[in-house]
């Protein structure tokens, strides 16, 4: 892609405002919303710390205290809950491992217990359940394989069967759904393409067919949607772009129009990003607005790995860099 320059855009990235917003996320304990979102606390930490890293200011967080909290969320079964004393789930377990990797404190967790928890959730058909209650979703395939890759323990599960299940979830349009026969969705596509990249099986993907479907997600206002006939949303700046990046088709979208859309979704007063202009900001959309800009080459941002949604520097430290489609 051609080099992006800040001067090209009528709105600039409000980096200082976003850092202030991220730093103050835990200062709302007198508000009801803070406690209603307790189950997402661990996910929220991952979203916040990753955004801060991409904005090049991880020091706004205390990694020692963060690690202490993360470890308090690990249960006897080896998995992690969304907060202390919450039930284990693969979604939270992945966020826990991601944060520990970013903080460079992965050595402090009981890795064998995590591996045991994750491996027990693989089903006979190769799919993964999210927790002990058995819900199956391709999101969980990604979570499991990503966790194990970061722990260097993919040997703990049946990878060929995991790949076969993901292949069953591929549709005629080249996309992937949450389960077999479910419609294609940008978020699920990231999970499936990312999982295949992790186990070096991108040969399964029809890059041109899938790339076309993903490129069609860009609307006239520059934003991306998750599936046909839906509204644009900043979070798809990650789910769509990351998949396009992995299959080497990111140049198929209009990057300038997308950057303009993403920047229009920031709150210039409080900091943070919303799903679309004028809505309330949240840390989820803040992360995916920032990571979308990083993938597009926006200046003065750290690089994000499109497979793991983590800083490239953290992935390089683990020595688990995956091949993209053009390297097959």
TrEMBL record:
The keyword S-adenosyl-L-methionine is annotated on this UniProt entry: no
MF terms (GO), sorted A to Z: metal ion binding; Rab geranylgeranyltransferase activity
Enzyme class, spelled out: transferase
Reaction it catalyzes: geranylgeranyl diphosphate + L-cysteinyl-[protein] = S-geranylgeranyl-L-cysteinyl-[protein] + diphosphate
Manner of cofactor binding, per the entry note: Binds 1 zinc ion per subunit.
One annotated GO biological process: protein targeting to membrane
Pfam families: Prenyltrans (PF00432)
EC number: 2.5.1.60
A GO term from the CC aspect: geranylgeranyltransferase-III complex
Keyword Iron-sulfur part of the UniProt annotation: no
CDD domains the UniProt entry points to: GGTase-II (cd02894)
Cofactor section: Zn(2+)
Superkingdom: Eukaryota
Domain Prenyltransferase alpha-alpha toroid intervals: 13-310
Keyword terms of this UniProt record: Metal-binding, Prenyltransferase, Repeat, Transferase, Zinc
PANTHER family: GERANYLGERANYL TRANSFERASE TYPE BETA SUBUNIT, GERANYLGERANYL TRANSFERASE TYPE-2 SUBUNIT BETA
Functional summary from the UniProt entry: Catalyzes the transfer of a geranylgeranyl moiety from geranylgeranyl diphosphate to both cysteines of proteins with the C-terminal sequence -XXCC, -XCXC and -CCXX.
Family membership: Belongs to the protein prenyltransferase subunit beta family.
Designated name of the protein: Geranylgeranyl transferase type-2 subunit beta
